Structures are given as structure tokens and as C-alpha cells.
Automatic annotation (TrEMBL):
Pfam families: PIG-L. The keyword Zinc applies. Residues 51-94 are annotated as: Disordered. It comes from the Bacteria. GO terms for molecular function: N-acetylglucosaminylphosphatidylinositol deacetylase activity. This is GlcNAc-PI de-N-acetylase. One of its GO terms (biological process) is glycoside metabolic process. The keyword Transcription regulation does not apply. Gene3D superfamilies: LmbE-like. It comes from Microbacterium testaceum (Aureobacterium testaceum). Residues 64-82 have a biased composition (Pro residues). Keywords: Zinc.
Length: 359
């Protein structure tokens, strides 16, 4: 029994070994069959791309490449010349005001000017004549000092002013005063001779007047401070240059000649209003903002300034008069009782172009 079992066990081991060999052979063959395509695929991925050879048939050449056009350089625009009087506004709008005499602004155009300054706008005020009344530069300087102090009241700040002499491109020379540290405000003095209420001028200035200049009776008019004489055309061009330099949103001045509100006004007022209208009125930017203020004839119109606005206006005027010995007043009541001036202070009447009632 023992031998028979031993031989049977050996036979079983031999058959198992043969089976394992056969299975191993099958696995090797299968692995080889699988490995071949994997290897071929790897070589195919790196195989060089076939290069096509040109056909023996002649082909029409393609169109030649168009050369890239050289761009035409854009010409640099010529900068617009800037007037030497130009003065940028640090903020807000700019109000340009042009008057015949120092004090016309604070009498006829306030509270418009003081309200603009209080709102933070820039104000550029120009006085065309010296307002000298034939009394020379001492009286003129006194009136100018009064104006600067009145503007200090409107600014709400005392302080010194810097003075700069400027000659405009059009030929007019001005003295520009600007308060130190406050470029929002400037006052410009031209100092042409005062024409007198009679329009006949004064002996001290050779009876020369703005009216005679505008009417062509004289060829030119020289400032009383020795500045260069101006023709009517130069004066008009200079006023236009001021408007171009300051770019005002509004321009304030006098009623011009020919208006229904002109009769009875100071002749210098009417001439300055006419010059400004001629110089600035046709300008597309500044023209629509022109406002003409009724002068002496305003006393015949209803009072329209009262209360706090009147108090402020009178105080500004009172400060000015301390330097003008012709119309000095000590207090509010005294100023309002001054003949003519008290009634003008109670009124302010701006007119648009359409309201001038021109013939």
C-alpha cells in the first residue's frame, strides 16, 4: 500500500509540473503578442513626418506679398499761444468783470460779485480808467487801495497783495494785483484818463476821453501812469484777449450805448459797456454769459436789495470809501444817506443782451 501511494503521488506531481510549464508557455506567447504593438506604437509617435515632393507639373506662382505701408505721421498740433495775462482758476467758475472806474463794481454789481467769491469762484476784475477825476496818481492810488480792501472784505481775509506789470499781446499794459495765497481773486488796473461826468475830460489829462477814442476824435489814448497809448482797435482787442485768457462763465460790465437804460449814465460807463459788447459779445464761449448792469439810471427803478444782502453790500462799500475822500462815509446809515450813492446801493439790475432794448 505504501509503494502504490508513493508512485501515485509522484505521478500526480509530474502531471502538475507539466501543466505549469504549458501554462507558462502560453503566458509568454501572449505577452509577446501584446508587447509588439505597444513597441510599434511608440516608434510611430516619434516617426518623422513625410515631406511632400513638388509635382513635376508647373504651378502658377502665388501673388507677391504686398509691402506694409509706412504710416503717415500725425502732425503735432501747434499749441495755441497763451496770453501773458492768463491766470488759471484753482477751482469753480471764473467771473470776469470790466468797469470804467474803481467802485463801479461794488456799487452796481454787488451782491453778484461778493456771492461769487463766497461760493469759491474766481473773480477777475478790470478797471479801464483810473477814476482820477483829473487829480493825478495820488488820488488814483488811494481809490485802488480802497478797492483792494473792499475785496479783502469780500474774501473774508485781510492780507497783502502782489503787484505784477503785464503787457498783453494786443498791446495794453495792466497792473495786476493778486492777494497773497489766494489766486482766486485778481484786480487789473489800466488807468486810462477819467472822462468826467460831462464827457469833456479834465485839463490835467488834456481833455482826452474814452468817448473821443471810440468816436475817432483822437487816434489813441494814453494811461495816466505813463503806459503805452492805445488805439480803439487795440483796446477792443485787449478786452477780447482778457476774455480768451480767463475763460469766464460770466462777464459783467456796464450798459452799452444805444440801450434804453443808457441815457443819464456816466459817459465812461456807456463806452466801456460798448467796448466790452463789441469785443466779447460775438465770442461763442463768453458772449452768452454777458450781463450788463444798469448804472446811474438804476435810482429810478424799484429798490431790490435789502436785509442782510444790503448790510453786506454797504459794509463793502464803506470800507472802500475810507480811501476815497470824495464820497467817504462813516457807517451804514451815513453811506445810505449819501446823495445818489445811497439809492444806487439799494439796487442792482443786470440785463441780458435781449433785455438791453437796443434800437
Amino acid at each position: 500500500m505504501t509503494r502504490t501511494r508513493t508512485r501515485s503521488a509522484r505521478a500526480r506531481r509530474r502531471r502538475r509540473a507539466a501543466l505549469l510549464v504549458a501554462v507558462a508557455a502560453v503566458v509568454v506567447v501572449a505577452a509577446a503578442a501584446i508587447a509588439v504593438p505597444i513597441v510599434l506604437d511608440r516608434f510611430a509617435a516619434s516617426a518623422p513626418t513625410a515631406v511632400s515632393t513638388p509635382s513635376s507639373r508647373a504651378e502658377s506662382p502665388g501673388p507677391a506679398d504686398s509691402p506694409t505701408p509706412t504710416p503717415t505721421p500725425t502732425p503735432t498740433p501747434t499749441p495755441t499761444p497763451t496770453s501773458p495775462v492768463a491766470q488759471p482758476c484753482p477751482g469753480g467758475d471764473t467771473l470776469l468783470t470790466i468797469w470804467a472806474h474803481p467802485d463801479d463794481d461794488i456799487i452796481f454789481a454787488n451782491p453778484t460779485i461778493s456771492e461769487a467769491i463766497a461760493a469759491g469762484d474766481c473773480v477777475r476784475t478790470v478797471f479801464v480808467t483810473a477814476g482820477d477825476a483829473g487829480r493825478g496818481m495820488d488820488y488814483t492810488r488811494a481809490r485802488e487801495l480802497g478797492i483792494l480792501r473792499a475785496y479783502n472784505v469780500m474774501r473774508g481775509e485781510e492780507g497783502l497783495w502782489d503787484e505784477t506789470e503785464i503787457t498783453l499781446d494786443a498791446g495794453m499794459r495792466v497792473d495786476r494785483l493778486t492777494p497773497q495765497g489766494d489766486p482766486r481773486v485778481s484786480v487789473l488796473f489800466v488807468r486810462l484818463p477819467d472822462g468826467n461826468i460831462t464827457d469833456g475830460g479834465f485839463a490835467a489829462t488834456g481833455y482826452a476821453t474814452l468817448s473821443k477814442l471810440l468816436d475817432g476824435s483822437i487816434a489813441s489814448l494814453a494811461p495816466i501812469d505813463g503806459g503805452p497809448a492805445l488805439s480803439s482797435a487795440q483796446l477792443t482787442a485787449s478786452l477780447a484777449e482778457l476774455a480768451e485768457a480767463f475763460h469766464p462763465s460770466q462777464t459783467l460790465t456796464h450798459i452799452p450805448r444805444g440801450s434804453a437804460f443808457a441815457p443819464g449814465d456816466h459817459p465812461d460807463h456807456s463806452v466801456v459797456g460798448t467796448l466790452v459788447r463789441d469785443a466779447i459779445g460775438p465770442t461763442a464761449d463768453a458772449g452768452p454769459g454777458l450781463r450788463y448792469f444798469v448804472g446811474y439810471p438804476s435810482e429810478n427803478l424799484p429798490r431790490n436789495i435789502e436785509g442782510a444782502a444790503l448790510d453786506t453790500k454797504v459794509e463793502i462799500y464803506r470800507v472802500y470809501t475810507q480811501q476815497d475822500d470824495v464820497i467817504r462815509c462813516a457807517d451804514r446809515d451815513g453811506c445810505l444817506k449819501t446823495r445818489k450813492f445811497g439809492e444806487w446801493l439799494r439796487r442792482s439790475y443786470p440785463k441780458t443782451e435781449a433785455e438791453l432794448q437796443m434800437p
